[in-house]
Each structure stands twice: as C-alpha cells, then as structure tokens.
Amino acid sequence: MRSVLLAAALSAAAIPAAAQTCGGDFRSFLGGLRDEAVQRGIPDDVARGFLSDVRQDPAVIRADRSQGIFQLPFIDFSRRVISQNRVDNGRRNAERHDAIFDEVERRYGVSRGVLLSFWAFETDYGAVQGDFNTVNALVTLAHDCRRPDLFRPQVFAAMELYRNGDIDPATTTGAWAGEIGMVQMLPADILENGVDGDGDGHVRLKTSVPDALLSGGRMLQSLGWRAGEPWLHEIVLPDGLDWSLTGLDKTRTVREWEVLGIRARNGSLGPAGLAASVLLPQGRKGPAFLAYPNFSVLFEWNKSFVYVTTAAYFATRLEGAPVYEAGNPDPALSEAQMKNLQQRLQALGHDVGAIDGILGAMTRRAVQAEQQRLGLPADAWPTAELLGQL
Fold it and tell me: Is 269 inside a domain boundary?
C-alpha cells in the first residue's frame, strides 16, 4: 500500500518558474534539474553525483496509473487489508515497542493505534517496504507531467538527504511514488520531520523502528494532530435521522449529536463540546462512525477516502474496539457506473474532480446534493436508483 503525502507538496510559489517544466527529452530534463539544484544552493558535485545514474522507470508510471484498489467500497477494502494476522502482529508490535510508543505519545500526542495502523498498511510492519529505486521513481514522476509540482521538489529534498549521507541513489529503494521506510515518508517529510530516535546520528526509516515511529508521530503532529482527542468512533444511528446532516463537511458537537439520538456502539463518544461529523462510508444502511478533527488530519497522510477511513478504523481495532457492524448497504456501483455517475454529476454543474470511478469526497458531496434535490435519502451513497434518476 502506498501513500502520497500532501504535506510534502511544497508551494509552487516557492519554486522558480523553470521548475514547472516537465516532459521532453529526459537527458535535457536532468540537465535542468542539475542547474536548478545549483541555484537552490546544492553543490554541483552533489547534484551531478545524485543524478549520474538515474534512469526513467516505466513501471513507476504504470503503478501511478493503476490504483484500482481504491475503487473498492469500505467494507470490501477493509476486509481485504485487515486480516487477523495483521491484528495479531499489531498487538505484538505494540507490546514489543511499548517504550517507543510511550515516547511518541509523550512528545507528539499520537496514539499508538494510529501509527500501528499506518505501519501495517504501508509496509506490513516493515516487512514490505518496496523495491523501486527511490531516485529513479522521483525523477520519473517529476518528468511526467501529471503531478510535477509534487514530485520535482521531492527530487531536491532527496538530494539534500544524499548530501547528508542518508540515502544512496544506487541502492535506496522504497515505494513507487518515492516514499521511503517503514511508514513511507517522502524526502521532504524526512527533512522536515525526521527524528533520530536511536541516537546514531542519522534518520534511518528503513531499518530503525525508533526513527520510523518517532518521525511518523512528529509528522502527524506537524499536520495538526490534537493530543488526547479521538479520531473515529463507531456509532448507532437513531431512526429518522436527517441524512442531509451527515458527511465530513458538516459538524456538530458530540452533545448535539447525542441530542439527535446518536449513541456510541461501545465506550464513550468523548467530550461533549468536541466537534464531530457523522461518517457513513456506505450510506445509512452500512457501518456508521463519528469522525473528529484528528480524522481529517489523516487525509494529509493519504488522499484516499477509503484508505483513510479503513486506517482510522483499524487504529481503533488495535486499541480494543470491536469489529464494526457491517449492516446491509445497497450494492456499490461498478466502475463503469461510477464514471457514468461522475460524468452526469459534472454535467449538472458539480465539481467531482477526475472522472476516475472512485467515490471520493467531492463525488460524495455532489451525490448528497442530488439526493436532496430528488427527494432521496441524502446519505451520500450512490445507488443504481440515483443513477437511473439522473
């Protein structure tokens, strides 16, 4: 499982105009990278050494274009990535590295379940960290014109890590999108949030558990994680709830939700004044959660709705929550149906982002708006009935 860290996307305003170029002859592109690196203060010999053996990797582009797993609905996705083995290994790792998790929570306020969840999904607790050459991957994606504003700055961040002796262009490997280590961080994130947790003078996210977990905790704190607050809690819905009140773009306090009849399936929903949203990953007939401000922070780690929701839920499982009540949601649309729906929503004036067959936040908002307009239950879950009416 890979993630694209939004925190790593440096502002385009901070990058010289020439840095916006992409595509074209690859060797000429490398020359432009070298020239800009020198303008940024990186010694010429460092830039040349870093880029001397770089190669385009077609497999990286194929991976970037093939992310069909994120089209799965929450129940299917979560059942695919959460196994009993992952649960058991998570709890063993929590016990094995108890002192490190205590230190993460003391310094950064991040609960162990959250880091364990991302550690599990990103690399299976460090066992599968990716075998793509990191420098080749970053330069390939910077040259590609789909997201050069994200990946070109990462090339220069990786040069700084090379300059510091923390990566080797010839041997450092990781995910296809250039993330490195057990919790998969991009070079800019390592520069900004890397922590030498084991005191060896380097940040080694591939081999050092203290470095990886402390760095991940520090990054979440920098993204806005609020210490001591929950992130997700399973709820029981009352009969007759106004479904248009649900969704991550609508918030009420815990107390206000309780007045409307929302109840925790187990435990407590948290402080009465804490803001929260009702999250229905598969509509009113499926699992239901209350999502708090910390849940939104996780979207800075990964942009996928289904990935973040599953990771947040798995974190609660690792801290003792039961398996969610799946309910009996209406069948999910196929990829072709979802693309058709997105095209129809776009034609009605809704901004759904890319026509990609993925039910993300923008498509959900548009679905809910059309459900309201048509007098359907406005739970943001697209059905064949909705598609037919559109």
Answer: yes
